[in-house]
């Protein structure tokens, strides 16, 4: 009987150990799930890139040379250069006040869609300034409802957005990114992120709540520079809980924020890669942080200016192609300087449609 009792206890202990092990394993899996899914996404994106490359290499033109056309999967259209803020490092400055007529902008977007565009990001300048946000709203609506793009996003400083805009256009917008470099108003003022007595952080929080109410995924973009590099933003970012926190290393672009012709002079804002890494290390527990060093950032974006010309940044300045409205996407994109491999490597392709994000609103 004693022996039977010991055997039973031994079996129970073993069962207990097995259950604990399974529990720990499950916990570890849950903890790592986010990380693993991000890695898988990147792996899928890179494989997709390799397949596109392989297909391209099989296509040869009549003279036997290889055709290596770039697909404009994700495009950033800076339709205005005008802005109400004066950020000292701004790298898309108000060098012109030109904005295309709405129908011309739509024609260009249709050409991009035909060339393979899946995601459009509207940016500036401040995109909500043109016709009090109506121009932007119409483009957002057109891209979602007519072109049926998987993802439509906007980058804004957040100061001119109204609830009425969300009511009219929110359902067609997947992601709204608000630029915020500091949670200390004095630092924002020092940087130039602000206008008059308006409080940038209060605006940010107001817009964040509207995003929740009108079901738009919320993102934050921060440029790390000499004035915010020592700041600890962990608490505020956790509280705001954006779907993505893009953290850029301040970048110099000749003719925009550096050099004689430039409207801004950001030399005093620049930080070293080591300092940038220090900032990233301080925020390494934030899961949604997406870092972008100068190297990752410079050529991995397809940028269209207000005339719908691709801007080539490979020489450290923005050299424009001809407009896609005049020569078509395929001809213009050859002069974009776009590094497609780096685009996939930096995780440029991610879950960018709000329908796929499974967000709790
Ligand atoms: S808010 Fe953006 S576009 Fe406006 S000045 Fe600042 S960086 Fe430039």
Structural write-up:
One of its GO terms (biological process) is innate immune response. GO terms for molecular function: 4 iron, 4 sulfur cluster binding; catalytic activity; metal ion binding. It comes from Chiloscyllium punctatum (Brownbanded bambooshark). A hairpin with a 6-residue loop joins β9 and β10 (319-323). The N and C termini lie far apart (60 Å). The protein has helices at 2-58, 102-114, 134-146, 163-169, 185-191, 200-213, 234-240, 273-282, 294-298, 324-327, 329-333, 340-345; strands at 74-78, 119-123, 151-156, 175-179, 217-224, 244-249, 289-292, 302-304, 309-312, 319-323. The strands form two sheets. Strands 7-6-5-4-3-2-1-8 form an eight-stranded parallel beta sheet. It has a two-stranded antiparallel sheet with strand order 9-10. By secondary structure, it is α/β, with parallel strands linked by helices. Iron/sulfur cluster binds at residues 83, 85-87, 90, 92, 124-126, 157, 179.
Order of helices and strands, N to C? Answer: HEHEHEHEHHEHEHEHEEEHHH
* Beta-strand percentage range: 5-15%
CATH architecture of the largest domain: Alpha-Beta Barrel
CATH class type of the largest domain: Alpha Beta
The CATH homologous superfamily name of the largest domain equals Aldolase class I
Distance between the termini: 60 Å
Number of DSSP strand runs: 10
Quaternary organisation of the protein chains: single chain
Structural class: alpha/beta
Low-confidence stretches: 54-66
Major sheet size, sense and barrel closure: 8 strands, parallel
Radius of gyration from the CA trace? Answer: 24 Å
The tally of structural domains comes to: 2
| Strand ordering within the main sheet | 7-6-5-4-3-2-1-8
Helix fraction, binned, reads: 40-55%
Mean pLDDT: 87
| Ions, cofactors and other bound molecules | iron/sulfur cluster
How many helical elements? 12
What is the 3D shape? globular
